[in-house]
Model the fold of this input.
Amino acid sequence: MNNSDVAAYKDLFVQTAQDYIRQLNEALQHLAVNSSNQQAVADIHLAAHSLKSQNLAMGFETNGRFFLAVEQLFAGLKEEKGAVSRELQHDLSEWITTFKLSIEQFKKTGTEMDLSPIQEQVAKYLQ
Done:
């Protein structure tokens, strides 16, 4: 996508990203009550999938790869139907906070924040 395309979709990207952030936070709240809540796991998987696609469509490759990793992680958790550890819940909360900062940076500068450092954190769960 070129700069004029990014500008045209900026507001829509920000609005939908914020909606997905809310969905992620709601799912985290459900996991805090019941770490085996499979609907919450599915909701996180779907939000990560959507955010991956949205970021890639905007040309944000590192953010897209980050959400691909989160999507893969929660796809595995959906299959296992097990509990989501408190450590992962905490890390996901931190990742969401970082992504919120990324959205704020995008609103101000129109540029992507590099999420590759937290992508490396997700990778430890995928091993």
